[in-house]
């Protein structure tokens, strides 16, 4: 049965849609990398024929695996990176999907197909580019099988639904992380500003001098600048700075 013949009420597709809804709820509080791990697991669980799955990322002119269900999937990916050719690499570069039925005899990737078949027993694959980017990074979803022609039209359609849903989930997680980082940075800057104001008023120092005192105290106490700033804002005092105690003792002796 071809893709066009899959009826909207098909039980298998309804199950997948329900699984996607559940997956989205589970990933609501996950970061982008955790979402990719879950996406790889869902591919093996939901796509007919998939035995192993991985996520390939292309970033800074380099391909690498960021998630995988098994070490064998990582090894299959690594062979592609080593030879510079393969379905998951081309799916990302060409922004399309590839479904080689017999890797050993596929003329598009002769070196990769020969090696992955001989070394790992891989016979067929299904690879998609995920429709999202995280900064300069682009990801691809790869599914592997040790059976010939393990992926049919139904596998292709369900995999496409999964790749589309997963791409949205990853993009949302990445955006949420950026928002949280921005909020943390804004809060940290505000607390540092308050601490600087306290030091300026109490010690009659300039803004640059107040910031320098905070940095010295942070380095000396091996604490984050934000944590030192919170202490100053709450107590009005800095943690001890090298030489400060000895100067106090000298002044007391005089």
Per CATH, the superfamily of the largest domain is GAF domain
Helix content: 55-70%
**CATH level 1 class label of the largest domain:** Alpha Beta
- The N- and C-terminal alpha carbons lie at a distance of 96 Å
CATH level-3 fold name of the largest domain: Beta-Lactamase
Number of separate domains = 2
**Quick one: how many beta strands?**
5
Overall pLDDT score: 79
The CATH architecture of the largest domain can be given as: 2-Layer Sandwich
Q: Give the percentage of residues in beta strands.
A: 5-15%
Computed CA radius of gyration, to the nearest angstrom? 27 Å
Largest sheet: 5 strands, antiparallel
The 3D shape can be described as: elongated
- How many individual helices? 9
| Class inferred from helices and paired strands | alpha+beta
Strand order of the biggest β-sheet: 2-1-5-4-3
Order of helices and strands: HHEEHHEHEEHHHH
- Give unreliable regions as ranges: 1-9, 244-254
């Amino acid at each position: 049965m071809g893709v066009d013949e899959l009826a909207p009420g098909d039980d298998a597709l309804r199950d997948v849609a329900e699984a996607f809804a559940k997956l989205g709820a589970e990933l609501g509080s996950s970061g982008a990398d955790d979402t990719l791990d879950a996406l790889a697991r869902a591919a093996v669980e939901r796509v007919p024929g998939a035995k192993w799955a991985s996520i390939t990322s292309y970033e800074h002119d380099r391909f690498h695996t960021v998630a995988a269900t098994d070490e064998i999937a990582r090894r299959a990916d690594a062979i592609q990176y080593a030879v510079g050719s393969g379905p998951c690499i081309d799916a990302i570069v060409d922004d399309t999907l590839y479904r080689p039925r017999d890797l050993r005899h596929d003329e598009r990737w002769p070196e990769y197909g020969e090696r992955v078949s001989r070394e790992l027993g891989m016979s067929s694959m299904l690879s998609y580019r995920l429709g999202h980017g995280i900064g300069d990074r682009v990801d691809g979803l790869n599914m592997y099988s040790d059976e010939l022609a393990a992926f049919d039209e139904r596998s292709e359609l369900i995999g496409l639904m999964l790749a589309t849903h997963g791409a949205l989930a990853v993009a949302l997680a990445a955006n949420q992380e950026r928002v949280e980082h921005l909020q943390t940075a804004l809060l940290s800057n505000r607390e540092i500003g308050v601490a600087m104001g306290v030091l300026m008023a109490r010690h009659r120092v300039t803004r640059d001098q107040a910031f320098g005192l905070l940095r010295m105290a942070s380095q000396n106490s091996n604490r984050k600048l934000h944590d030192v700033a919170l202490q100053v804002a709450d107590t009005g005092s800095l943690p001890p700075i090298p030489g400060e105690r000895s100067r106090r003792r000298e002044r007391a002796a005089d």
